[in-house]
Design brief:
Blueprint lengths: L1 H19 L2 H15 L11 H5 L6 E5 L2 E5 L5 E7 L1 E2 L7 E6 L2 E6 L4 E3 L5 E7 L5 E5 L4 E4 L5 E7 L1 E5 L5 E4 L4 E4 L5 E10 L7 E6 L4 E5 L4 E7 L1 E2 L8 E4 L5 E4 L5 E7 L1 E5 L5 E4 L5 E4 L5 E7 L1 E2 L8 E5 L2 E5 L5 E10 L8 E5 L5 E4 L5 E7 L1 E2 L8 E4 L5 E4 L5 E7 L1 E5 L5 E4 L5 E4 L5 E7 L1 E2 L7 E5 L5 E5 L3 E2 L13
Helix pairs in contact: 1-2
């Protein structure tokens, strides 16, 4: 390697001597340059953050017999379960764990690198990769660093998540305010409730014994606290607000009524410039920025407009779809409706037959109402459906059974082309788009695959395990999310 470096140095010396006429100086300079970049890249100094993380990022907290440890994505125990609680590893390959009512910070080998004082009862949200909210023995909260040192002393009744602006909602048991990362009151505690700051630097607050207003991060009133109800400022500079009688309208940043308070309730403006509103009789419609009813309040149920410009509405106990002018694009003739899929179809329930099918943007049947239930239509053009006998199969956009209705239930297909399914005996596994069992139905509970390619399962003996896309691993796990109940 050094012969190669020497040749490079001589060549660079010659070049620089010709250019600058300072060969000796250039030799020293490039010698240092080559030595620096010729250092072995697998040394600890040469490791990148990504390389240092490659090990601990693939270790996950799991439980066995009520105690937590860590396993890798292949199900191998990397740290034996000895802890009563375990958090995911942070960017520095360390994690907080609990044992015998004490908290420790361990590395990816399971070695204790810090043992905090017994005064720490529990941890809250991470402030960042190095700091975490902690509750002390006095039941007050503060923030500690990786060494267990109190960066913010436990003097607060509660500390909410720190925001991107470096502030966190906090209360001193009497009132709420905002603190910085050093625990200093940036906005003193003088509010009954406070909201998090929005991206425009404003927050809705309620002073003690007062009404709602909006402040900025300099603790200045943008909108004085004179409103019975108030929501965040929108991109158009308006905020939904309620007057002293609880009647809603819209105000601007100066607190002026742009839309006079004349509505029983009001929602945010959508991108089309319309806002859903309710009149004093409880009927729903849409108004414009001038408080004019663009769509008259004639509906007892009214959804927001979808990307295709249609909104479902209920009229005389039947559902249909209206456009932004309030005209019926699909007349009200259904017992129930879903939301439009990307292909322009929507699942609807026929009012007379009480069966589900799919219609297009004209309301014409693409799939006749033959099914007693239809789930979401996937990107693969398939949807699980239930026949008149209560059995589930899978249909295509033509309403044809591509998987015969022989299952107790079928969930949606995931990104791997698999769907969780339950057989007649109540056992679950995974099937492919041909209806073949890829993972046999031997489990009582199952979750979908997560980003790491693993799914959680449980059998009759309450034994829990991971399923990978290739292999099965019998692993006890401490947390389990059921699929929806049916």
């Amino acid at each position: 390697m050094w012969n190669k470096c020497y040749n490079i140095i001589k060549l660079m010396q010659l070049v620089m001597f010709i250019v600058l006429g300072r060969g000796k100086f250039c030799t020293y300079f490039f010698l240092l340059f080559i030595i620096f970049f010729a250092m072995p890249q697998n040394s600890s100094l040469g490791q990148t953050t990504k390389q240092r993380l490659s090990t601990c990022e693939k270790i996950y907290p799991l439980a066995r017999d009520g105690l937590y440890g860590y396993v890798d994505s292949e199900g191998e125990w990397k740290i034996e379960p000895n802890y009563s609680a375990a958090n995911p590893f942070l960017h520095d390959c360390t994690a907080w764990v609990q044992k015998d009512s004490k908290f420790f910070r361990i590395n990816s080998k399971g070695t204790n690198i810090f043992s905090p004082t017994p005064s720490i009862l529990r941890f809250g949200a991470n402030v960042n990769d190095d700091l975490v909210v902690a509750t002390a023995s006095n039941e007050y909260q503060g923030v500690i660093n990786a060494k267990g040192e109190w960066v913010i002393k436990p003097a607060f009744h509660s500390i909410k998540d720190f925001q991107n602006n470096g502030l966190a909602n906090a209360d001193d048991s009497k009132a709420w305010g905002y603190i910085d990362i050093n625990g200093n009151w940036v906005i003193p505690p003088r509010f009954r409730t406070v909201a998090t700051f929005s991206d425009n630097g404003s927050a809705v607050v309620v002073p003690l014994g007062s009404k709602c207003g909006i402040i900025n991060m300099d603790n200045q009133w943008l909108i004085q606290p004179t409103y019975r109800g108030l929501r965040d400022l929108q991109e158009n500079g308006l905020a939904p607000a309620a007057d002293t009688n609880g009647i809603w309208g819209f105000i601007n940043l100066s607190g002026e009524w742009i839309v006079q308070p004349s509505f029983y309730y009001i929602w945010n403006f959508q991108k089309n410039g319309l806002a859903k509103a309710m009149n004093e009789r409880g009927f729903l419609g849409f108004i414009d920025i001038n408080a004019n009813w663009v769509i008259q309040p004639l509906f007892t149920e009214l959804d927001f407009f979808q990307e295709n410009g249609l909104a479902s509405a209920l009229s005389e106990n039947k559902y249909g779809f209206i456009n932004t002018q309030g005209n019926w694009v699909i007349p009200p003739m259904f017992a129930a409706v879903g939301k439009f899929y990307d292909n322009g179809l929507v699942a609807v329930k026929d009012f007379d037959k009480q069966k589900w099918g799919l219609v297009d943007l004209k309301g014409e049947w693409v799939i006749e109402p033959f099914f007693t239930g239809i789930r979401n239509l996937g990107e693969n053009g398939l949807a699980s459906a239930r026949d008149s006998n209560g059995n589930w199969g899978v249909i295509n956009t033509s309403g044809e059974w591509v998987i015969k209705p022989e299952f107790n239930y079928i969930w949606d297909f995931n990104q791997y082309g698999l769907a969780a399914a339950r057989n007649a005996e109540g056992k679950v596994g995974f099937i492919n788009t041909n209806g073949e069992w890829v993972m046999q139905p031997t489990y009582t509970l199952i979750s979908n695959f997560t980003k790491n390619g693993l799914a959680r399962t449980e059998d009759d003996d309450k034994r829990q395990r991971f399923l990978s896309l290739q292999l099965e691993y019998r692993l006890p796990i401490g947390y389990f999310s059921n699929l929806e109940k049916n």
